[in-house]
Write a structure and sequence with these properties.
heterodimer, A: 489 residues, mainly alpha, Serine Threonine Protein Phosphatase 5, Tetratricopeptide repeat, two-stranded antiparallel ribbon, B: 1024 residues, Immunoglobulin-like, 22-stranded antiparallel β-barrel, globular
């Protein structure tokens, strides 16, 4: 009989708590307290940009919505729409980029809120805070240039009540927030080069781009920038800020070796002198995003699966998603090394015999800015270059206008490309037009052209006037993805 | 000590087995057993009283047995009164049994308790499944298709081991619509794939449909409960049953893809030219260097490959089953052994399974007994699913060098390469055990405690080789070891009190508690960069890069259970149940939930006016019930803000990052979750049920009818959040759904003779489902269109095909209705296109002529010109069963039908190398073929989802036909029964649907391109 009672007791005892502690994930109530934790949260904010939802549209949009490339046949409406400037609010590239930008904003805002007061080293806290502000500005700046009025996000969403009700902010207030955030970031950040992270110079570089966008848009009458008080004020601010990058620091410098800029084969080159801020990807990554297939997007589909560039650099085959447009290539000066050496017209075998030349159609010369000779299968360390020293140097020139400083800046870029100095004595307007043109050569295939044409009100005059493209809509702003309105009416 | 116990247990077991084999009798008795009507009664148990010695009568009712000369024979048979006859020196007996009507009253399990079938107050269906085990099935659910009213089971896939869609009385939730499955009192989770239990071990299944029945399962009862009962030992001689069958599978219909290479080339080029592209079948290399022959070369006989033939095979699967059971008054045992193969029709896509079950019931004292049950199953799966059968038939398997052919660097679809080189093997191990302690404290009070434990585990090895798989190419060979383990512990303890007061008030009280704990652990080892891949996933340390990940989830449920049954004069029955559930999944603001129910029924056949006035009525019982049940389909910790992690390359290496967003993958893109909702709680369903049970003419006619209304609110929704929130989805409580319907079952014994029986049954279910609300505007946003529809999108996002989701939850509509444009026809001329408001390519002849349904003069088939265009929910489902036996022959048939549900035929007009439904592509619009319903072929057409893709999915399927023959075994002493049978599954499907098969998922989207299988089985069943 006793055994029976023991048996009953044993059955009854199996009972358990209804509030089990989470054992496999961290909750926001028990995190962000130490410097290491905050550091991992900062990196988590950057990491948003390595999702394919971010990386793909980052280049899909501006490289096809310009004279640089057209998309390979069969890539689908979501990319074709940019080539023909007939974009609707269901476009998946825009939707993905929009979503990911706000995921990035939320992560940046989380960092900003969690580092306002820290119990660890105050300088470290400031640095994290500055990086959060930089990223918040980056996302707002990308969004405002793509879509115009969008919701402004300056606090983290960590409660259900904060999920709905975001309303579009005016373009002016978005710019005001960006400027204020970047100025704070510049105060908080040290100069410290770490590949894939932003420092004081990155914040200054970004701010100079913000100012030049406002200045040139106002000056050229680009749509919806009427609110900018005065073009000259912002050209001056752009010049001052760019000057901080060009003249007041020595960590990031002009790379005299044109080819070396785009070399990712060694850690030194990967983190080369020009690269102020970029999205780091490495061939040893486990999933796409951690590693990159960007090279294959430019290498034509009929290129051999293994071959060598004329200078002996090894490469793999490609998908040929972005097909270079020949009229764009013809716009380069015949002596321009950026056409002759950074665009590939033939591929060789190991002994130097020609294996491939463009055969027309979708088989065209292609950019070698994204080649990794150390590729493993499809995996490379190629990546988008977000802020490059030469980009800021040209912004400095554009902001300066045809001054000695301005000429010196643009001529450094031209001379490296094997070109003679820019014709002296240009008017301010002509000089600035020449800088925009120079940017199209220097920054070709890096995702800048669309934004340069938009801010200088040149979409129609260049794309339609020079290149004969038809523009149906979205010349200056793309429609905000329908999903936002559908879920947040 | 424990070991010793095990040992003595085994010895004890062997002894009792031995006892049943031993022959120590002195005299032989023999005879026949007949019914009062003069029929022989086969299968009657003849047992020497107080011994395990006994036999069963054979087909003619004859028996012979050796017994002690002072023995008493106990003769018992289902449906007859048991008699005891002392032999008193006689050796021949002609025994006549009289029918026992009360025994016809089956015992029905209603959760923690059993009642007589006639005393059931709620909506409960019972089905005996013993015969059904002749049908080869992965799980018992498959055997229930079309056999229980109110239970609708869909079988959307023929993949080995694939689960089923199981629903009771419609969908009362947006997220979880699957009933709870309980095996011998052990709640095991969602129904649909009870693969651990051998169907041949299952003797009956009860389905609890209304709240009165299901409320005892509280927060998991909202979708109904399926109670499965497995075989237990019986007092009497050992019975050994052996069955073996072999099943041959092939396709029920033809593939509708390109078989003729000329069609492939002509139609592909036509689609390209119409898109402004150059033709590709011109006898030259494409950009990837792959040669495409010209159409004339193809006509002259360019070599092709029959990939359907390569990928698919006809299979022959085997199923062997042994059941042994028997016992004495004190000890009863059962043992089951099953081995089967379920190889798929895809080459090398194999599954085999062994199941062993063992149970023992032991009386410890007069009042205390212990039962235990163990079920062990092991499966081995080699998965080669998803390989391309629709590959371009002009592509060879091997290239000139004898390597697997690749059309370009990124062609990872050569089915032969994947079959030969890719590895995907899983071993599963499942253990289910329960122990029951029963103590009859006195004649009124009983205590029962049940302790259940289950363990499910699997180990999966995968290897993706370099060159021929995408992942392997990216990682230079990628290998995975995946571990999965779940454990469930459920302990119940409860008292039942039984007493009849003043001879007319019968009262049964049940009270107790139940406690449940469940955990899942997973871990993954990944390695890549193999210099030599020949070991596959055998040695992960050979890879250059390694990565691990793991996860752990636990949930707990604590409950109090109670039930009161009251019967007045054996006529009026009242039942009240209540269950209090506390769940770890619920938010801190809503930890406990109470689920009450009540029911009343009236056995009118006990009233004099029926007993005297209409004595042919065996049963007339109206029932009424009302109650509240819940649904706790919440993932653990969804109430908290959860942080996720990622990896970022900085300072020369990857580092782990931590912050907002739990990321999951959707194709190459991501979905982000992680925002907590502390208010999360269970869904609540209020169920009203009114029913009537009617039997007449000595149970020759059985009829049952139920009307129900289920109203579910606080629906759990994976709410899509606006992108600006930084999250994609959040689980919330929002919305209300109503299900209302009737179900009817009718069975009639047309002929009921000794050697000739015919009976027929009909089951009819009609469910009307309606979304009442989509939640408060503060917590979820609802779209509104020009037609006043208020809705929210759900289901699969058809990004590439339609650039949209196509199902919506819309207020006042059934769930999952289709939302899209309306097609009026095909544009015949550019003028017509322009006149109707189309522009550009969309205005060309041969394009879809979409309707301007909002009449604003602008055609926007992707936006404003969309409305609700179809309903995937069937109007009603019905099934017909037919059973016949004539002498030694048995014939049964099951027809199963679904009527009025719409199906979106996604592959109706898809282009590409395989050509979805080529028969449609051949009817394309062209200037020579204007009067067709199909548009021209144009590869880059921007297609909007429209009613053009929707078809009526009604069907009537010959689900199963079985023909059995009982071999005459009269002369063979050792064999009691020997039967050979043939069973055919899915023999034919009557439907107007033009796709592959209209039986698809709950959203009604048919993306299937592989025809359904027809299965033919030949088997034997021998009982010793």
């Amino acid at each position: 009989m006793k055994n029976i009672y023991i048996a009953i007791f044993a059955f009854v005892l199996v009972s358990c708590s209804l509030d089990p502690e989470p054992t496999t994930f961290l909750s926001d109530s028990n995190f962000y307290n130490t410097a290491e934790e905050a550091n991992s949260a900062v990196l988590h904010s950057y990491q948003t940009m390595t999702f394919l939802d971010y990386l793909r549209p980052y280049l899909n949009i501006p490289t096809t919505a310009s004279e640089e490339t057209f998309p390979k046949e069969g890539e689908g409406l979501n990319i074709d729409q940019f080539e023909i400037f007939n974009v609707d609010d269901k476009n998946q590239n825009l939707e993905q980029f929009f979503r990911l930008s706000y995921i990035g904003l939320n992560r940046a805002n989380t960092v900003i809120e969690k580092t306002e007061e820290v119990s660890y080293n105050k300088d470290l806290g400031n640095k994290f805070q500055g990086e959060g502000l930089f990223l918040r500005s980056w996302h707002h700046f990308m969004l405002v240039r793509l879509f115009g009025e969008v919701p402004l996000k300056t606090s983290a969403v960590d409660e259900l009540s904060e999920v709905f009700g975001a309303e579009n902010a005016s373009i002016e207030s978005i710019y005001n927030t960006i400027i204020s955030d970047l100025n704070t970031a510049i105060d908080l950040l040290p100069i410290e080069r770490v590949g894939g992270r932003a420092d004081k110079v990155a914040a200054q570089a970004l701010l100079s781009k913000v100012y030049i966008t406002m200045a040139s848009a106002k000056s050229t009458g680009s749509p919806r920038y009427e609110w900018v008080s005065s073009a000259d004020t912002y050209y001056n601010l752009a010049s001052q800020t760019a000057s901080e990058v060009i003249n007041n620091q020595s960590v990031y410098t002009f790379d005299p070796d044109l080819i070396h800029i785009y070399d990712v084969s060694t850690p030194e080159a990967f983190n080369g002198p020009e690269h102020i801020f970029f999205i780091p990807q490495d061939r040893s990554g486990l999933i796409e995003g951690e590693f990159s297939k960007l090279s294959k997007f430019f290498i034509p589909a009929n290129a051999p699966s293994s071959s060598f560039l004329p200078d002996g650099t090894a490469t793999h085959g490609g998908f040929g998603v972005y097909v270079t447009e020949l009229p764009f290539l013809s716009s380069f000066n015949t002596n321009d090394r950026r056409r002759n050496e950074l665009v590939i017209d033939e591929l060789h075998d190991a002994s130097g015999n020609i294996r491939w030349t463009p055969s027309g159609g979708e088989s065209q010369p292609f950019s070698r800015k994204y080649i990794d000779p150390e590729f493993i299968g499809d995996n490379t360390s190629t990546h988008p270059f977000l802020l490059r020293y030469s980009d800021i140097l040209l912004i400095y020139a554009e902001a300066q206008g045809p001054t000695t400083e301005g000429y010196n800046a643009v001529n450094r870029v031209r001379n490296r490309a094997g070109l003679v100095d820019l014709l002296p004595g240009l008017s301010v307007a002509d000089f600035r037009d020449k800088i925009i043109e120079e940017r199209s050569f220097e920054l070709a295939f890096e995702g800048h052209r669309l934004y340069d044409l938009r801010r200088t009100n040149k979409i129609q005059s260049v794309l339609t006037g020079v290149y004969g493209k038809t523009i149906t809509n979205s010349a200056y702003f793309f429609p905000i993805p329908a999903i936002e309105g559908e879920l947040n009416n | 000590m424990k070991k010793l116990k095990n040992k003595s247990f085994v010895i004890f077991l062997l002894l009792s087995l031995y006892a049943s084999f031993s022959f120590a009798q002195k005299i032989k008795v023999s005879g026949t057993v007949m019914s009062e009507l003069g029929y022989s009664v086969p299968g009657t148990s003849i047992v020497e009283k107080n011994t395990p010695n006994g036999v069963s009568t054979d087909f003619d009712g004859s028996f012979s047995l050796h017994v002690n000369d002072n023995a008493t024979l106990v003769i018992s048979s289902m449906g007859y009164k048991t008699v005891e006859i002392p032999i008193l020196g006689k050796s021949t007996f002609n025994i006549v049994l009289s029918e026992d009507i009360s025994q016809l009253d089956e015992i029905v399990i209603i959760g923690y308790q059993t009642v007589k079938k006639s005393d059931v107050t709620g909506a409960v269906s019972k089905i005996n499944t013993e015969d059904l085990s002749e049908i080869p099935a992965n799980s018992v659910e498959e055997l229930l298709i079309g056999r229980v009213s109110g239970l609708v089971i869909g079988n959307p896939s023929d993949d080995p081991g694939a689960g089923l869609n199981v629903r009771i009385r419609g969908a009362s939730s947006f997220t979880a619509t699957t009933p709870l499955i309980v095996v011998d009192g052990f709640p095991l989770g969602d129904a649909g794939n009870l693969k651990q239990i051998n169907p041949a071990d299952i003797v009956s299944v009860e389905v609890l449909k209304d709240a009165s029945a299901a409320a005892i399962y509280g927060s998991r009862g909202a979708n109904g409960v399926i109670l499965v009962t497995t075989r237990r030992g019986k007092e009497g001689k050992m019975v050994v049953d052996f069955t073996a069958n072999a099943t041959f599978s092939d396709f029920a219909t033809e593939f509708d893809i390109y078989k003729n290479p000329v069609n492939l080339a002509v139609l592909t080029d036509e689609g390209r030219v119409n898109s402004g592209l150059l033709p590709i079948y011109i006898g030259g290399e494409d950009v990837n260097g792959t040669y495409f022959p010209s159409i004339s070369e193809i006509r002259e006989g360019y070599p092709t490959t029959d990939y359907v033939d390569y990928v698919f095979r006809t299979t022959l699967n085997n199923n062997y089953n042994v059941s042994i059971y028997g016992g004495t008054e004190k000890t009863k045992y059962n043992f089951g052994l099953n081995f089967n193969t379920q190889d798929g029709v895809v080459r090398d896509n194999d599954l085999s399974k062994v199941t062993v079950s063992f149970g023992i019931d032991q009386k410890l004292t007069d009042k205390v007994s212990l039962s235990t049950n163990m079920n062990f199953s092991r499966g081995e799966r080699s998965d080669n699913g998803g390989i391309s059968f629709d590959r371009n038939i002009l592509f060879p398997i091997y290239d000139e060098d004898g390597n697997f052919f690749k059309a370009n660097d990124n062609d990872f679809f050569n089915p032969a390469a994947l079959t030969e080189l890719r590895i995907n093997e899983t071993t599963t191990l499942d253990l289910i055990s329960s122990s029951i302690f029963l103590w009859e404290i006195n004649e009124n009070l009983k205590f029962k405690s049940q302790f259940n434990y289950s363990l499910g585990s699997s180990f999966q090895e995968r290897y993706f080789p370099d060159t021929y798989t995408q992942l392997g190419f990216e990682g230079k060979g990628v290998a995975f070891n995946d571990n999965f383990q779940n454990q469930r512990v459920v302990a119940d303890a409860y008292f039942t009190y039984n007493k009849v007061f003043a001879e007319k008030h019968a009262l049964t009280l049940l009270a107790g508690y139940s406690s449940e704990y469940f955990e899942v652990r997973t871990s993954q080892l990944r390695s890549q960069g193999f210099i030599n891949g020949s070991l596959g996933a055998g040695n992960l340390s050979l890879g250059n890069e390694q990565r691990t990940s793991n996860n752990f989830i636990e949930t707990a449920l604590s409950s109090a259970i109670s039930r009161v049954n009251y019967t007045f004069k054996e006529k009026v029955l009242l039942t009240f149940t209540g269950r209090l559930d506390g769940s770890s999944n619920f938010g801190s603001n809503n930890k406990y939930a109470f689920f009450p129910s009540g029911a009343i029924s009236w056995k009118m056949q006990k009233e004099p006016f029926i007993e005297d006035g209409a004595p042919f009525i065996d049963q007339l019982k109206p029932r009424l019930s009302y109650g509240i049940v819940g649904n706790q389909a919440i993932g653990p910790f969804e109430t908290l803000n959860r942080l996720g992690n990622g990896r970022y390359f900085t300072n020369g290496g990857f580092v782990t990052t931590i912050g907002p967003n739990i990321i999951s993958n959707n194709g190459i893109f991501i979905e982000s979750r992680g925002l907590g909702n502390p208010d999360l709680k269970w869904e609540t369903t209020k169920v009203l049920n009114a029913g009537l049970d009617f039997s007449a003419f000595n149970h020759r006619l059985d009829f049952s009818f139920d009307f129900y209304n289920k109203l579910t609110d606080d629906l759990l929704v994976d709410s899509a959040l606006p992108p600006t929130s930084g999250f994609d989805f959040l689980r919330i409580n929002a919305g209300e759904i109503e299900n209302q319907g009737i179900e009817l079952s009718l069975n009639y014994d047309v002929i009921r003779k000794e050697d000739f029986k015919i009976s027929a049954g009909i089951i009819f279910n009609k469910n009307e489902n309606k979304v009442i609300s989509l939640g408060s505007p503060e917590s979820t946003r609802v779209l509104t269109d020009d037609f006043g529809n208020q809705f929210r999108f759900t289901g699969t996002n058809f990004r590439d095909q339609y650039r949209s989701r196509i199902n919506v939850f819309a207020i006042d509509q059934p769930i999952n209705v289709f939302y899209g444009a309306v097609v009026r026809g095909i544009i015949q001329s550019e003028e017509e296109g322009l006149f109707n408001g189309f522009t550009g390519a969309a205005a060309q002849p041969g394009e879809f002529l979409y309707e301007d349904i909002n009449g604003d003069g602008q055609i926007d088939p992707f936006g404003a010109d969309r409305t609700i265009i179809g309903d995937p929910n069937p109007d009603f489902t019905a099934s017909l069963t037919f059973d016949m036996s004539y002498k030694n022959w048995e014939l049964t048939a099951l027809f199963n039908g679904s009527f009025g549900g719409d199906v979106a035929n996604i592959n109706k007009y898809s282009t590409g190398a395989g050509g979805g439904q080529t028969s449609n592509l051949l009817q394309r619009w062209s200037t020579d073929n204007r009067s067709t319903a199909f548009p021209s072929l144009r590869e880059n057409r921007n297609v909007a989802f429209s009613d053009w893709w929707i078809e009526d999915g009604s069907f009537v399927r010959i689900q199963n036909v079985r023909l059995g023959y009982n071999l005459p075994v009269k002369g063979i002493k050792a064999i009691n029964k020997a039967k050979v049978y043939f069973s055919g599954d899915n023999l034919y499907n009557f439907t107007n649907y033009n796709g592959i098969d209209p039986e698809v998922n709950l959203q009604g989207t048919d993306q299937n391109r592989v025809p359904r299988l027809r299965r033919l089985t030949l088997g034997v069943d021998i009982t010793f």
